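User: Hey, my collaborator sent me this sequence without any context and asked if I could get a structure. I don't really work with proteins. Can you help?
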Amino acid sequence: MLINNFLSSRKSVRSFKSRKIGASACEKIREMLRIYNADKSDSNIFFFHENGENIAQSLNGYAGYNGVMIDAPSYISIDLGSSSDRERVMGMYRAESLISFLENEGLGSCWVGVFDTPKEVLDKVFGSSHTPTMLLAIGYPKPANPFVVSEASERKPVDEIVFKDEIGNKIELQELEMRGLDDLFYYVRFAPNTLNSQTWRFVLKGNEIELYLTDHNGKYYYEDAGIIMYYFERMYELAGYKKNWKVFDEFEDVNGYKKIATISL
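Assistant: No problem. I've predicted the 3D structure and written it out in structure-token form, which is a compact way to encode the shape of the chain:
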């Protein structure tokens, strides 16, 4: 299945070869980041760090998985600290499109959280004028053992994230099947999200789907909305439909849920 192949291609790479990224690929990455940053007039969001050795050593014990830093030849840092909620959504949407480009260049990637990294550590590595919200480790992946099956994290069932007309109003699986949306919603649940919070919600209303975000422990992870939007569009395209989300300039609060965007069917 094409959708399943897409998900397989998006698996995180945690072991990279020490080989540096080629000069041609580096220039393409820099050009893409210039285009992305041009959309934000007051400051940059994306930064490319070609020599990742110093970053890996300096952040070991402070970032990564259980304090173990992902060692990669290069990193892209994303600074969303001064961004609006909408810019956070669009910033992560663009970051996911960047990952698709990296795949086409034969490069693997892995998100590295720096939520709990002390600011003084980040300042020492990146400078006080740039505080990364996220890091993307990139490089040429080491071959994976084909006989090792990776574990999938638990995901909410479709009927807990998809509703009809309004949030809380159950939608029948048969209706999703009739509209050809059952596989799409089954697989889109596996999109990356912060702390496995799975805070996105979808409302099928007429010939549109509305995207909402709920909070997790009192915080809205707007970055996750951008990620799920990209996954949804790509999977919908693989199913034969070319549609794009329309993101609102401001996110209306609807009974505690933030209304992010709509997409036509």
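In plain terms: The longest strand covers residues 246-254. You can pass these tokens on to your collaborator as they are.
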